[in-house]
């Protein structure tokens, strides 16, 4: 079978992101079931599952030989068997979806043999679609995104998603955040990692840091940040994996090294959650 072109993959990824976002907005206006996944601060709704299934159906209808890695695990095959892998988070920021009804997104990425080809992050409540195709640049709706402004760490607005759990305390994340907060212009916590990283690409935030994210949280946005000219690695400077958890730092390249120095983490914190 002939490999699909980048244009075909991009068109489907963007169509899926918009369609998923519209479905979640529609369902948000009706009553929906909310469950605890692992605790009262880890929610999943019937909408997360329905939207994931909807996206999977759209992908498999067009490309039945592609694999899917989604947060809600509604794809029944073994995703590792496939060269072309779609990495999807149907609702990134489920807590915001339930409580705020804004600040959530759908994240859809396409990888070929582990290489990121297309990333799309859609915020349906603001109708903002962030996307990128490898080698072809990043966009917000139709506006090209370029991180041209040189920002110092002192001038930076940084964002983090911190889980204030035991593990975070053990490895001293509270100390790291405190140290950073004293250095930078400001810190923000928005609650959708995919959106927060996309905001770095758009220059609304200058950097994003997380101790531990899943592949579907950063799979699309890392391509968008890189294509906008940003730097994205794990906190210890490794390339991000495409199908595993990792810590993440995504930022304006001007202060990447200084930020890493400030984070000052050792290797054993790399995959902490
Ligand atoms: P979710 O809403 O898809 O679960 C919240 O600060 C951000 O972190 C969201 O992007 C959220 O994604 C993600 N998140 C929530 N729980 C997480 C966990 N246990 N590990 C990694 N990321 C998590
Ligand atoms: Ca979740
Ligand atoms: Ca997520
Ligand atoms: Ca999710």
TrEMBL record:
Its cofactor is Mg(2+). One of its GO terms (molecular function) is inositol monophosphate 1-phosphatase activity. Mg(2+) binds at residues 71, 89, 91-92, 217. Its EC number is 3.1.3.25. Belongs to the inositol monophosphatase superfamily. PANTHER family: INOSITOL MONOPHOSPHATASE, INOSITOL-1-MONOPHOSPHATASE-RELATED. This is Inositol-1-monophosphatase. It comes from Brevibacillus centrosporus.
